[in-house]
Amino acid sequence: MAHDLGFWTLQALNALQLSMLLFLLSIGLTVIFGLMHFVNLAHGSLYALGAYFAASLAAVGGYWMGFFLAPVAVAGVGILLYSGLIKRMRKSGPMAQVLVTFGLIFVMLDLTRIFWGDLALAIEVPALLEGRLAFLGVEYPTYRLFIIALGLMILAALAFVLGRTQIGAMIRAGVDNDAMAACLGINVERLFFVVFCVGCALAGLAGAVAAPLLSVTPDMGLQILIPTLIVIVIGGLGSLKGAVAGSLIYGVVQTFGAVLAPQLASVLIYALLAVVLVIKPVGLFPAKG
Amino acid sequence: MFRHTALRYTVLVLLASAALFQAFTAEYFGLEILTEILILAMLVLALDIVAGFGGMVSLCHGALMGVGAYTYAMLSTKVGIAPSVAMLGAIALTGAASWVIGAICSRSHGIYFIMATLAFGQMAYSYVFEAPAFGGDDGLGGISRLDLSIIGVDLNDSRSFALFCLAILGAVYGASVLILRSGLGRSLSGVMHNEQRMRALGLTVWRVKADVFGLSGMIAGLAGALAAQHILYISPGLLSWTVSGEALVVVILGGLGTLVGPLVGAAAFVMLKHELSAVTTYWHLVVGVILIAVVMSRANGIFGWCEARWGARIDRRLADATGKHQPKEVMTDA
């Protein structure tokens, strides 16, 4: 089995699909951290919220309504969080931020339980994306291919915005040196706000996309949080390149590890993280030298 | 450096007498809660030493406690070593493991330190979760308690076990104060306030951090060995990062860098948890809101707030007595 080319293609696609899901989550988190020096542990809860919104909206108006409106709704929650809590916590140390957002995880966990109950919800894959597709010599579920394509599209769009447009230049300047950027007349506060909203929307999108694959449960946010943090710490905080590299490394190690060395798989990724932190304490591609 | 103030002595005496009163008067359920508080108090003392006095905010102390619990359980049930030796083994192994973690993480700061310790904690968690030798996700049972029949104490009795844990907590508190007052503890405070200055003075900074982290890990390992004996059953959930997060919450609710505060926090947290979960299944929501409120208020937890108020009162009295305003006295070392 292990010598079959189809097997490797299949696993590579699985790895890529996991990577793209993590990329959607980690890019928001990492840019928020790079720009605002804010550690948002509640990012995973926003992802869970996205899945719940998508499940509820899909029940009303079909999958695509959930797909398009869930990110908007999550961005709305993000605006509430930003104006209520995060704006005031901006200048605090990392520990205060970790604790406040840890408290937020508790709060949002129980709020989802209150609104949606403890039972797992499920969403149907839309008719358009059902079934399997022959791709590179293997039969692969269309919906998973859709996730890969979506991740690559978002990646391309973000790379274009961050690298080629004026607002991207402003964001990069803000990550690099926010005081200097403010002196040059960039409204850094508003930039923070916009980036935070986009990050929340992407987390919501990731939740909406993941909902048909996984069952929607209150603790799905906690489960995804640790992989997301590993991705951004391996990749280095604040950079698009870091988020991409971290997601790919995580996806490949996790998928191939589970197939080739099942006993070691779960330890492997943490060991890798420890090695990266020992050799390069700030990750592989940090935004600041 | 850590100092005892009149307020700290008062609160310590109050806490000790409340615990003794509870230990002698409570029924079975009350004794279980008391033991839970005492064991959590040891863990948060260990965390306060590194986080409050060394600036090393660790998210692996829950996992360290789990390592202690698993070492005790494995040594006493599978290997068949006497419980007393198994306890020493648990303390030694957890201490050694956390010394290594401290040494590796000593170069990282701030959020990277938090993440690095989180990684090590999760590594232990997933290893224990997957390994069939450790019972996997079924956990391990059949654990026995320490045999103290030589001095006529039967630890299988809840009351004796609670008193035993109280005595150990007293010893742990004393040891923590000694550590913080020793040369090592003073170096640690120096490192927290200005690492470069200490390095320039010729101190091997990573050694100080690793040594203190190792000592703190020994306390966490002891707490774990006692936790295993308390519940007589252990599961990988003990090592999960949320346990470490909760320990950090307790330290913050009590008052970081005060040693006494985390004890207050442990008592408040466990009682709050039991009271709330009797009323509602959504007790996490309440704890979360309280946590956010405490951190946003910028007070250093319950005890830190009391100390600040107490300090302000002394200032006022001094100002009244001398007729001029005194500079505000800083009561905490953190």
TrEMBL record, chain A:
UniProt record similarity statement: Belongs to the binding-protein-dependent transport system permease family. LivHM subfamily.
Membrane-protein topology: Multi-pass membrane protein
Keywords on record: Amino-acid transport, Cell membrane, Membrane, Transmembrane, Transmembrane helix, Transport
Protein name, as recorded: Branched-chain amino acid ABC transporter permease
Pfam families: BPD_transp_2
Native organism: Marivita lacus
Residue intervals passing through the bilayer: 20-39, 70-86, 98-123, 143-162, 191-214, 267-287
Residues in coiled coil: none
Record flagged with keyword Nucleotidyltransferase: no
InterPro entries hit by this protein: ABC_transp_permease, BCAA_transport_permease
Main location: membrane
Annotated compartments: Cell membrane
The keyword Kinase appears for this protein: no
Automatic annotation (TrEMBL), chain B:
Name of the featured protein: Branched-chain amino acid ABC transporter permease
CDD domains reported for this sequence: TM_PBP1_LivM_like (cd06581)
Compartments where found: Cell membrane
Source organism per UniProt: Marivita lacus
Main location: membrane
Membrane-topology annotation of the record: Multi-pass membrane protein
PANTHER family recorded: ABC TRANSPORTER ATP-BINDING PROTEIN, HIGH-AFFINITY BRANCHED-CHAIN AMINO ACID TRANSPORT SYSTEM PERMEASE
Pfam families tied to this protein: BPD_transp_2
Key words, A-Z: Cell membrane, Membrane, Transmembrane, Transmembrane helix
TM annotation in the entry: 49-73, 85-104, 110-128, 161-180, 212-235, 247-270, 282-306
Source taxon at top rank: Bacteria
